[in-house]
Amino acid sequence: MALRWLLYVIMALSLSGFLGVGWVAMHPPVQPPVPPPVAAAIPPVAHPHVVILIAARPLRAGALLGPDDLAGREIEQPAPDMVTDTPTGREIMLGGMVRHNLGVGTVLHDDSVLRPKDGGFLAAVLEPGMRAVSVGIDPVSGAAGLIWPGDRVDIVLTQSVDNSAQLAARRVSGETMLTGLRVVAIDQQLMQGMVGSEGAEHAVRTVTLEVTSAQAERIAVGARLGHLSLAVRASQADQSSVAAGPPTVTWAGDVSSAVADAKSGQPLRIYNGPDKTEEMHF
Which of 6, 14, 49, 271 lies at 20 to 30 Å from 57 by C-alpha? Predict the structure, then answer.
């Protein structure tokens, strides 16, 4: 009897084991959720910075652009008509006439200036009723290449008299013929120091000045009388076009004491016949 009960117990335990194995096989343990893979961070696309030209200081309409009037600013997406700060871009803008008033930092566009090669440029630069006249100069008489469009200059006329009867102290003279004339152009390119097609700076040969019709006539006559030189005026100086009163003449004797002492006084000529003349100085 006891053996029979032992057999029943063994069979019940075996059945329980089989049932447990089947349950586990049919109901696997729940696995924890696997987090999705983290995507690699994509770096943002870097836009290249472009340097464009801006106004470095306030500019009035009609002013001619010089090197100190231009500055650069970095931006990411320039407009197609903005002028880039490159040697070519600066060369194009230098010497151009500002069409409208520009404040500090104003971006320069292709149509911001009237360029020297544009039609009607010189006529637009001149004030109403004024004329443009060109003066031939050399590097010395042209202030050694330091004159820029927009500067104010005086014209000095130097002339000599080839007359042996004239006192040495009075044979060479200099006088300021005109004052306060505005420079509107340097050579045909209307800008001093610009790089030509050969890639080198050319020597300045002519300076174009803004004058009245009467001043243009005086310059034409002065160029035939002697040598014309230009003297740059300070920006704060009087900008009147013609000096008040008659011009002051500087003679050779006023500059050199040696010339003044060579033959002082007025000459006295004594005629002792048709072929014999004596000159005496007192």
Answer: 49
Contact at 8 Å (CB) between 94 and 191?
A: yes
Rg (CA), the chain: 45
pLDDT tens-digit readout, 78-114: 888 899 999 988 888 887 888 888 999 999 998 888 8
Q: What contacts 280, CB < 8 A, 6 or more positions away?
A: 267, 268, 269, 270
Rounded to whole angstroms, the Cα distance separating 127 from 150 reads 13
> pLDDT tens, 157-198?
998 887 766 677 777 888 999 999 988 877 755 544 444 444
Q: Which residues constitute the domain of residue 86? A: 46-125
Give the CATH number for residue 51: 3.90.1210.10
Q: Specify the range with the lowest mean pLDDT, choosing from 90-104, 211-225, 233-247, 251-265.
A: 233-247
Q: What phi, psi does 6 have (nearest 5°)?
A: -65, -40
Per DSSP, the three-state class of 15 is helix
